[in-house]
């Protein structure tokens, strides 16, 4: 089984952490780096191959599905001429996992502004682009996961002032259903326990600090409990993330971006993994950006990418086993 690994933004740390991840994982799993081998750090042992040959190549070199991006890499300085190739690498990886040639997809970080400037990229980010490539009108859901915690923000990259209107019963229900389905199918949890955070401080405190919990969240949760969902909430977010609380659920559904990401980055900053739920294939990525300030310095930390590749391999194997 081979995990497709896209190159991400060449001027970022993606090429460097890809090589570090290969060195750490070459006796453990197979990966196929999709990108320009000329962008890899000098002296990197690499070998051109395809998904079928990647596991055998892993022992001696980084397996690469080699593509010519047409211009060299300058660490820390995005080149607009690379943008279309970065987008093509993602699309090619999706085709490989969709066909079954690769078992899962792991993506190195992209730089959205570079893709907009160089390729008129029309998506807010990786997640939305992958959902479009998958087709079927899916709305992908973002999970951040580490061994101690899984969190899912119902709303993501929008201003905080827009969250109350965006957090509809329909959106929250779709998020809860997608999360439960993924925990069963991909994580092997037969009866997932979900904790749902309130939007307001103290989960609204009976309406004194907001009525979204009373009018939207609580009625939805009660209806879903009637279908057999194991749901706790709406809960006050400030008491959901200490160790005894985390032991009572398998994933936390949060109202907005920082409500979810602050606790997981506090619990495990280096090893968090971004998992996209609701796609017809497995996709993970490291929980960090391109880190232009570290590119080319030799100080980039591959811990999150290593965790993301391991999780992609494990989830892909589980999904293949259940069909």
TrEMBL record:
InterPro entries: PdxA, PdxA_fam
GO cellular component term, pick one: cytoplasm
Statement: the UniProt record of this protein carries the keyword NADP: yes
Cofactor: Zn(2+); Mg(2+); Co(2+)
Enzymatic class: oxidoreductase
GO BP term, pick one: pyridoxal phosphate biosynthetic process
Chief location bin: cytoplasm
Record localization: Cytoplasm
Residues that hold substrate according to the record: 126-127, 265, 274, 283
One example GO MF annotation: cobalt ion binding
Swiss-Prot/TrEMBL keywords: Cobalt, Cytoplasm, Magnesium, Metal-binding, NAD, NADP, Oxidoreductase, Pyridoxine biosynthesis, Zinc
Pathway listed: Cofactor biosynthesis; pyridoxine 5'-phosphate biosynthesis; pyridoxine 5'-phosphate from D-erythrose 4-phosphate: step 4/5
Top-level taxonomic group: Bacteria
The keyword Heme is annotated on this UniProt entry: no
Catalysed reactions listed for this entry: 4-(phosphooxy)-L-threonine + NAD(+) = 3-amino-2-oxopropyl phosphate + CO2 + NADH
Binding site for a divalent metal cation: 157, 202, 257
Quaternary structure and partners: Homodimer.
HAMAP family reported for this sequence: PdxA
Function per UniProt: Catalyzes the NAD(P)-dependent oxidation of 4-(phosphooxy)-L-threonine (HTP) into 2-amino-3-oxo-4-(phosphooxy)butyric acid which spontaneously decarboxylates to form 3-amino-2-oxopropyl phosphate (AHAP).
Family: Belongs to the PdxA family.
Note, other: The active site is located at the dimer interface.
Protein name listed in UniProt: 4-hydroxythreonine-4-phosphate dehydrogenase
Lineage: Bacteria, Pseudomonadati, Pseudomonadota, Alphaproteobacteria, Rhodobacterales
């Amino acid at each position: 089984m081979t995990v497709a690994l896209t190159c991400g933004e060449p001027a970022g740390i993606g090429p460097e952490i890809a090589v570090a991840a290969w060195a750490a994982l070459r006796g453990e799993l197979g990966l196929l780096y999709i990108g320009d081998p000329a962008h890899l750090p000098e002296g990197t042992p690499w070998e051109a191959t395809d998904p079928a040959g990647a596991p055998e190549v892993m022992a001696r070199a980084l397996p690469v599905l080699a593509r010519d991006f047409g211009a060299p890499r300058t660490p820390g300085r995005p080149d607009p001429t690379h943008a279309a190739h970065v987008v093509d690498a993602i699309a090619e990886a999706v085709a490989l996992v969709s066909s079954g040639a690769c078992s899962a997809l792991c993506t190195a970080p992209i730089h959205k502004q570079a893709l907009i400037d160089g390729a008129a990229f029309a998506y807010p980010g990786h997640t939305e682009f992958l959902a479009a490539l998958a087709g079927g009108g899916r709305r992908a859901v973002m999970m951040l996961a580490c061994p101690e915690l899984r969190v899912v923000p119902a709303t993501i990259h929008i201003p905080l002032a827009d969250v109350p209107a965006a957090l509809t019963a329909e959106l929250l229900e779709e998020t809860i259903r997608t999360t439960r389905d993924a925990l069963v199918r991909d994580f092997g949890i037969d009866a997932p326990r979900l904790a749902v955070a309130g939007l307001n401080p103290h989960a609204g405190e009976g309406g004194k600090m907001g009525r979204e919990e009373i009018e939207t969240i609580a009625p939805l949760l009660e209806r879903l409990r009637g279908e057999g969902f194991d749901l706790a909430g709406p809960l006050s977010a400030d008491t959901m993330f200490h160790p005894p609380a985390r032991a009572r659920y398998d994933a936390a559904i949060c109202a907005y971006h920082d409500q979810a990401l602050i606790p997981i980055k506090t619990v495990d900053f280096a090893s968090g993994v971004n998992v996209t739920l609701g796609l017809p294939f497995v996709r993970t990525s490291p929980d960090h950006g391109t880190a232009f300030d570290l590119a080319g310095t030799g100080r980039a930390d591959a811990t999150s990418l290593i965790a993301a590749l391991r999780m992609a391999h494990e989830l892909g194997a589980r999904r293949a086993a259940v069909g």
